[in-house]
Amino acid sequence: QVQLVESGGGLVQPGGSLTLACEAHGFSLAHYAIGWFRQAPGKEREGVAFMGGSDGSIYYPDSVKDRLVIYRDRPKNTVYLQMNSLRVEDTGTYYCAATFRGVLIRDEGAFDRWGQGTQVTVAS
Predict the structure, then answer these.
(1) Are the C-beta atoms of residues 117 and 6 closer than 8 Å to each other?
(2) DSSP 36
(3) pLDDT class for 56, splitting at 50, 70, 90?
(4) Does 32 score more than 90 pLDDT?
(5) Out of 15, 52, 117, 119, which could bridge 104 as a Cys pair, Cβ 3.0 to 4.6 Å?
(6) pLDDT confidence tier of residue 55, bands split at 50, 70 and 90
(7) 8 Å CB contact between 36 and 49
(8) Using CA atoms, how far apart are residues 98 and 113, in angstroms rounded to an integer?
Protein backbone atom coordinates (compact mmCIF):
# COMPACT_ATOMS: atom_id res chain seq x y z
CA GLN A 1 0.00 0.00 0.00
CA VAL A 2 1.38 3.38 -1.03
CA GLN A 3 1.38 5.71 1.90
CA LEU A 4 3.32 8.12 4.08
CA VAL A 5 3.34 7.43 7.78
CA GLU A 6 4.33 10.12 10.28
CA SER A 7 5.48 9.45 13.80
CA GLY A 8 7.24 11.19 16.64
CA GLY A 9 4.64 13.66 17.80
CA GLY A 10 3.81 14.21 21.44
CA LEU A 11 3.70 16.62 24.34
CA VAL A 12 6.76 18.75 24.96
CA GLN A 13 7.50 21.76 27.14
CA PRO A 14 8.34 25.14 25.63
CA GLY A 15 11.99 25.22 24.69
CA GLY A 16 12.08 21.48 24.15
CA SER A 17 12.77 19.43 21.03
CA LEU A 18 11.04 16.78 18.99
CA THR A 19 11.95 14.91 15.84
CA LEU A 20 9.17 13.83 13.53
CA ALA A 21 9.61 11.03 11.03
CA CYS A 22 7.84 10.45 7.74
CA GLU A 23 8.37 6.98 6.32
CA ALA A 24 7.27 6.05 2.83
CA HIS A 25 5.62 2.68 2.29
CA GLY A 26 5.11 1.13 -1.13
CA PHE A 27 7.28 3.60 -3.02
CA SER A 28 10.73 5.18 -2.91
CA LEU A 29 11.12 8.77 -1.75
CA ALA A 30 14.09 9.21 -4.06
CA HIS A 31 13.47 12.20 -6.34
CA TYR A 32 10.35 13.17 -4.40
CA ALA A 33 10.06 16.75 -3.21
CA ILE A 34 8.99 16.84 0.42
CA GLY A 35 6.98 19.30 2.43
CA TRP A 36 6.19 19.41 6.13
CA PHE A 37 2.98 21.26 6.98
CA ARG A 38 1.20 21.99 10.20
CA GLN A 39 -2.32 22.95 11.12
CA ALA A 40 -3.15 24.61 14.40
CA PRO A 41 -6.71 24.51 15.77
CA GLY A 42 -8.85 27.06 13.95
CA LYS A 43 -6.09 27.99 11.52
CA GLU A 44 -5.21 27.15 7.96
CA ARG A 45 -2.54 24.62 7.19
CA GLU A 46 0.88 26.18 6.63
CA GLY A 47 4.15 24.87 5.29
CA VAL A 48 7.08 24.80 7.69
CA ALA A 49 9.85 23.00 5.81
CA PHE A 50 10.51 21.97 2.23
CA MET A 51 13.12 19.90 0.44
CA GLY A 52 13.75 19.37 -3.25
CA GLY A 53 13.62 15.85 -4.61
CA SER A 54 17.04 15.80 -6.21
CA ASP A 55 18.62 19.24 -6.12
CA GLY A 56 19.30 19.41 -2.38
CA SER A 57 17.44 22.67 -1.96
CA ILE A 58 15.77 23.45 1.35
CA TYR A 59 13.44 26.22 2.43
CA TYR A 60 12.01 27.33 5.77
CA PRO A 61 9.62 30.23 6.34
CA ASP A 62 10.86 32.95 8.69
CA SER A 63 8.52 31.78 11.47
CA VAL A 64 10.52 28.57 11.95
CA LYS A 65 13.87 29.36 10.40
CA ASP A 66 16.83 28.41 12.63
CA ARG A 67 14.60 26.17 14.76
CA LEU A 68 13.55 23.45 12.33
CA VAL A 69 15.71 21.13 10.26
CA ILE A 70 14.45 18.89 7.46
CA TYR A 71 16.60 16.00 6.32
CA ARG A 72 16.21 12.62 4.71
CA ASP A 73 17.67 9.19 5.29
CA ARG A 74 17.62 7.53 1.89
CA PRO A 75 18.37 3.95 3.02
CA LYS A 76 15.51 4.19 5.52
CA ASN A 77 13.21 5.82 2.94
CA THR A 78 12.34 8.36 5.61
CA VAL A 79 12.31 12.11 5.93
CA TYR A 80 12.68 13.81 9.30
CA LEU A 81 11.76 17.13 10.81
CA GLN A 82 13.88 18.07 13.77
CA MET A 83 12.22 20.78 15.83
CA ASN A 84 14.17 22.75 18.42
CA SER A 85 13.32 25.60 20.80
CA LEU A 86 9.67 24.75 20.49
CA ARG A 87 7.07 27.38 21.29
CA VAL A 88 3.44 27.15 22.29
CA GLU A 89 2.50 28.47 18.86
CA ASP A 90 4.18 25.44 17.25
CA THR A 91 1.30 23.32 18.53
CA GLY A 92 -0.66 21.58 15.81
CA THR A 93 -1.04 18.53 13.64
CA TYR A 94 2.02 18.01 11.48
CA TYR A 95 1.75 16.42 8.06
CA CYS A 96 4.37 15.33 5.59
CA ALA A 97 3.65 15.44 1.89
CA ALA A 98 5.49 14.30 -1.22
CA THR A 99 5.39 14.80 -4.96
CA PHE A 100 7.64 13.41 -7.69
CA ARG A 101 9.70 16.49 -8.52
CA GLY A 102 13.45 17.05 -8.49
CA VAL A 103 13.15 20.66 -7.44
CA LEU A 104 11.81 22.25 -4.29
CA ILE A 105 8.04 22.67 -4.24
CA ARG A 106 6.21 24.95 -1.81
CA ASP A 107 2.72 24.94 -3.30
CA GLU A 108 0.53 22.81 -1.03
CA GLY A 109 -1.72 21.92 -3.95
CA ALA A 110 1.19 20.39 -5.86
CA PHE A 111 1.71 17.61 -3.32
CA ASP A 112 -0.18 14.45 -4.18
CA ARG A 113 0.81 12.14 -1.34
CA TRP A 114 0.02 12.98 2.26
CA GLY A 115 0.49 11.33 5.59
CA GLN A 116 -2.21 11.07 8.21
CA GLY A 117 -0.61 13.61 10.52
CA THR A 118 0.97 13.51 13.96
CA GLN A 119 0.01 15.75 16.86
CA VAL A 120 2.53 18.06 18.46
CA THR A 121 1.54 19.87 21.63
CA VAL A 122 3.84 22.42 23.22
CA ALA A 123 2.70 23.26 26.74
CA SER A 124 4.13 23.68 30.20
Answers:
(1) yes
(2) E
(3) confident
(4) yes
(5) 52
(6) confident
(7) yes
(8) 5
Cα–Cα distances in Å, from 12 out to 47, 83, 95? 21, 11, 18
50 to 6, 24, 68, 92: CA distances (angstroms): 16, 16, 11, 18
Comparing CA positions, the residue from 109, 42, 118 lying closest to residue 80 is 118
Backbone angles phi, psi at 89, to 5 degrees: -75, -5
pLDDT tens-digit profile of 69-111? 999 999 999 999 999 999 999 999 999 999 999 999 999 999 9
Whether the CB-CB separation of 85 and 67 falls below 8 Å is answered with yes
